[in-house]
Write a structure and sequence with these properties.
Blueprint: H1 4-11, H2 15-23, H3 30-43, H4 49-56, E1 61-66, H5 72-87, E2 91-96, H6 101-113, E3 118-121, H7 128-137, E4 141-144, E5 155-158, H8 160-173, E6 179-184, H9 189-205, E7 214-217, H10 221-233, E8 240-243, H11 246-258, E9 268-270, H12 277-280, E10 287-289, H13 292-307, E11 318-320, E12 323-325
Parallel strand pairs: 1-2, 1-3, 3-4, 4-5, 5-11, 6-7, 6-8, 8-9
Antiparallel strand pairs: 10-12
Helix pairs in contact: 1-2, 1-3, 5-13, 8-9, 10-11
Length: about 325
């Protein structure tokens, strides 16, 4: 198969010059253009879309950087991004950062090196300053689940604080005053913001936050069980538990039932995310719906628009608000 390099060699010009002739863009002298066109005809060269995209450093791909695609949350994120990419004639390329700062940086460079002008990134460990600097280098870069005021037009985010306060409101409306919290030990923004929202919810409801009823562990099923054991061993009474996410909430339910407690008759439990697990749990789990698939769909479209300079005004913010899903794991506080 004849390549662009073959044409360039035969015509005595660079591959970039051949590309300019093929695409009709850029300055090429009339004599040079005629010579290249003659060689193209003689050799039977037929340009393909991938080689043209490579020369322009652009492809019909949207890049996605997630911490770990095997997790349901990030799988849903990828699904939403892919729907938007396909709808706009793009394919989706995925990189896992595995919760490493160096990997997040390397993933951006790798995707951009492959011609991705539109990149959607879920960053846990890069600083605001680093992300601002990156946004100045890559015009199609969008951050999901992160809010930085200086680059608000590139941030698609969710109000974790208001969401957690809404859970407190629900439990307080059911008469719960002694509320425990099972949070994540991971030092990223979501656990901090959700705990802040819980504290604010307590304050607004006129409740006292009992620090002895705050347990931390890994953000998974076993972590939820560990938190429940710690709460039961604290000797403090509680009638409800707010968990960092649905996995932890199900772990809490399992450990409470194992220790002879009825959920929700004796202890109510609320999760966060509205994962598929909520409907499989017994009782079905009340939770906050985190619309990550919808957010990713929106963010991918935004990344494409930014790369093409067709995005909306600079000062626009892209905030998604919470929805409380009430199921069977919450009941009135026992008398």
């Amino acid at each position: 198969m004849v390549t662009i390099s073959d044409v360039a060699r035969a015509a005595g010009v660079s591959s970039a010059t051949v590309s300019r002739v093929v695409n009709g863009k850029g300055k090429v002298g009339d004599a040079c253009r005629a010579r290249v066109q003659k060689i193209i005809q003689e050799l039977g060269y037929k340009p393909n879309s991938s080689s043209q995209a490579f020369l322009h450093r652009q492809t019909m791909n949207v890049g996605l950087i997630t911490p770990k695609i095997s997790m349901e949350f990030f799988g849903n994120l990828a699904a939403g991004a892919e729907v938007a990419a396909r709808a706009n004639g793009y394919s989706l390329l995925i990189c896992n950062s595995l919760y490493e700062e160096e990997s997040e940086m390397a993933a951006i460079e790798s995707l951009h090196g492959k011609g991705c002008e539109s990149i959607l990134m879920h960053s846990d460990y890069l600083t605001d300053k680093q992300l601002i600097e990156l946004s100045e280098r890559y015009k199609g870069l969008v951050f999901i689940n992160r809010y930085i005021p200086k680059i608000a037009n590139r941030c698609v985010w969710f109000d974790n604080v208001a969401s957690s306060a809404q859970i407190v409101d629900l439990l307080a409306s059911q008469g719960h005053k002694h509320i425990a919290v099972a949070t994540s030990i991971y030092q990223n923004r979501d656990p901090q913001q959700r705990l802040l929202g819980v504290r604010q919810g307590f304050m607004m409801q006129g409740l006292n936050f009992n620090e002895k009823l705050l347990a931390e562990s890994t953000a998974n099923l076993e972590g939820g069980k560990a938190c429940a054991r710690e709460l039961l061993q604290s000797g403090e009474s509680f009638s409800a538990v707010i968990a960092y996410n649905d996995l932890m909430a199900v772990g809490v339910v399992h450990e409470l039932v194992k220790n002879g407690y009825q959920v929700p008759q004796q202890v109510s439990v609320v999760g966060f995310d509205d994962s598929a697990l909520c409907k499989a749990c017994i009782p079905t789990l009340s939770t906050i719906k985190y619309p990550i698939e919808e957010m990713a769909n929106y963010a991918a479209k935004l990344a494409i628009d930014l790369a093409k300079d067709t995005a909306t005004p600079e000062n626009k913010t892209h905030l998604f608000t919470p929805a409380l899903i009430e199921r069977d794991s919450v009941a009135p506080a026992p008398v």
